[in-house]
């Protein structure tokens, strides 16, 4: 490991029960896309479209985690992680999305889970991190109401197979992000831009979440179940009525459409009106099922502005020049993180696990600079300090997972953007902990004293 940088400020102290972890997702790290019975997902297909992913990258090999998971779990142990959040690849278990099961796929997650448990690391699987089986997209994907039942069947398969060793389950990762990017703006898989399609998708994903919660609960009443939401405060670019209205609608779509429906039992007002034609009697009760925790992925505040060219009339506004930016241009404001933790505690009244938070940078090809990632250390230190402040001020926060354990396939940005605390040399698949990994390991170690 590279030399740990000693944090200059006084050491933050969290309760002994606080859980420390790291997150990844299947398509972003596993690779082995064409091995042992895995069938294509919508992201395999999207990566084949010309010009959609930087440098024409794809997840065929990624971090080769499918083969290198024992080494990755050893790394997690060295870091002192309590828990590891990963996602299960639906097309690895059910190549056609339903029906015939791929035993080799099931075996892979058995091995991963066992390996984690041997090292005393809790497995936190997420059932859906965007790699929808292509075969189901061919049947209309999330615009098809039957998806809720197919997702429930897939959930049952996972719960039966892994439920003897897994306690914490997440249904979906970032509901609003994959639905907006994939079905409204068309910037991610499956590259659709259609209002009706998008609305149906929102509702059917919510139904699938509710059905999965019921399946998990039916399998074991002791499971701890949550959904994972991207929540970033949305502010108007300018203090003018058009931008204020745009930011409100942006907020409904990005931050509220899923957790309000799942936890409060209703859609936010403008979405409720638009989605009404797709809602059947009893649906809101099917969606709003009791949950044990709220998964929060937080990175940066967002700025919205009126943009008639965009499908819903809101678009991305400019970030105020005075805000510092991360290496991918996202504004950095730890206060927005602590404010969000307070707001979410008040609004949803569930224990919060921060299931993603981290710093991205463009790879400029300088490996030494990548390893001495002081900017990532500074980001993590200031955000974790903000979380500590929120906790002291009464926010209900139970754990933190850094995004990400490894550099990985960053969707449309390909491998040119790095979010890992562990460097991955894609040519050799060598893993090297960065300064941020050492800083994080030190922080965890100090919590145990
Ligand atoms: O890499 C993504 C992850 O898949 C979902 N949350 C945001 C991360 C960084 O963009």
Secondary structural class: alpha/beta
- CATH topology assignment: TIM Barrel
What binds here, in terms of ligands, is: 5-hydroxymethyl-3,4-dihydroxypiperidine
Task: Please state the overall shape, judged from the principal axes of the Cα atoms.
Answer: globular
Characterize the biggest β-sheet. 8 strands, parallel, barrel
Question: How widely separated are the two ends?
Answer: 22 Å
Helical amount among residues, as a percent range? 40-55%
Low-confidence stretches: none
Looking across the biggest beta sheet, what order are the strands in? 1-2-3-4-5-7-10-12
What quaternary form is this?
single chain
Average pLDDT: 97
| Count of DSSP strands | 15
Annotated CATH architecture: Alpha-Beta Barrel
DSSP strand content = 15-25%
Number of helices: 17
How many domains is the backbone divided into?
A: 1
Radius of gyration of CA atoms, rounded to a whole number: 21 Å
- The top-level CATH class is Alpha Beta
In words, what does this structure look like?
The chain is α/β, with parallel strands linked by helices. The protein has one domain: Glycosidases (TIM Barrel), CATH 3.20.20.80. 42% of the residues lie in helices and 16% in strands. It has 17 helices and 15 strands. Helix 14 packs parallel to helix 16 (374-392). The structure holds 5-hydroxymethyl-3,4-dihydroxypiperidine.
Short description:
Helix content is 42%, strand content 16%. The chain has helices at residues 26-29, 42-48, 65-79, 90-93, 103-118, 134-137, 147-162, 175-184, 195-219, 241-256, 259-264, 269-275, 283-287, 334-348, 367-371, 374-392, 435-447; strands at residues 19-23, 83-87, 122-128, 168-173, 224-230, 234-236, 293-297, 302-306, 314-316, 352-356, 361-362, 397-403, 417-418, 422-425, 430-433.
């Amino acid at each position: 490991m590279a030399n740990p940088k000693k944090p200059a400020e006084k050491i933050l102290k969290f309760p002994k029960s606080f859980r420390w972890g790291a997150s990844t997702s299947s398509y972003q790290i596993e690779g082995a896309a064409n091995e042992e019975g895995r069938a294509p997902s919508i992201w395999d297909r999207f990566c084949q479209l010309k010009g959609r992913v930087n440098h024409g990258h794809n997840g065929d090999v990624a971090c080769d985690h499918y083969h290198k998971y024992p080494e990755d779990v050893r790394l997690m142990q060295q870091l002192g992680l309590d828990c590891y959040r990963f996602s299960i690849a639906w097309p690895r278990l059910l190549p056609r999305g339903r029906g015939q099961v791929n035993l080799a796929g099931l075996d892979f997650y058995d091995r991963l889970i066992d390996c984690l448990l041997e090292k005393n690391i809790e497995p936190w699987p997420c059932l859906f991190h965007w790699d929808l089986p292509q075969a189901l997209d061919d049947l209309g994907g999330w615009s098809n109401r039957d998806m809720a039942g197919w997702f429930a069947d897939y959930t049952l398969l996972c719960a039966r197979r892994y439920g003897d060793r897994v306690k914490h389950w997440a249904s979906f990762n970032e509901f609003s992000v994959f639905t907006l990017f994939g079905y409204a703006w068309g910037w991610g898989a499956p590259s659709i831009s259609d209002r009706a399609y998008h609305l149906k998708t929102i509702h059917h994903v919510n139904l699938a979440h509710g059905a999965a919660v019921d399946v998990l609960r039916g399998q074991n009443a002791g499971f701890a179940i949550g959904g994972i939401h991207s929540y970033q405060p949305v502010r108007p670019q300018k203090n003018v009525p058009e931008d204020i209205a745009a930011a409100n609608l942006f907020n409904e779509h990005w931050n509220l459409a899923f957790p309000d429906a799942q936890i409060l039992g209703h859609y936010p007002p403008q979405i409720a009106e638009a989605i009404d034609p797709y809602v059947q009697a009893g649906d809101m009760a099917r969606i709003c099922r009791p949950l044990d925790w709220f998964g929060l992925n937080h990175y940066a505040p967002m700025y919205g502005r009126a943009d008639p060219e965009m499908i819903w009339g809101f678009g991305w506004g400019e970030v105020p020049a005075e805000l510092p930016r991360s290496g991918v241009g996202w504004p950095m404001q730890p206060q927005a993180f602590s404010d969000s933790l307070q707001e979410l505690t008040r609004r949803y009244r569930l224990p919060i696990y921060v299931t993603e938070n981290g710093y991205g940078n463009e790879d400029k090809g300088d490996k030494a600079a990548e390893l001495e990632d002081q900017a990532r250390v500074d980001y993590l230190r200031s955000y974790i300090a903000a979380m500590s402040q929120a906790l002291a001020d009464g926010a209900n926060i139970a754990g933190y997972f850094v995004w990400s354990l490894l550099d990985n396939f960053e969707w449309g940005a390909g491998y040119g953007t790095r979010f890992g605390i562990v460097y991955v040399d894609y040519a050799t698949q060598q893993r090297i902990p960065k300064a941020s990994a050492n800083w994080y390991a030190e922080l965890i170690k100090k919590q145990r004293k």
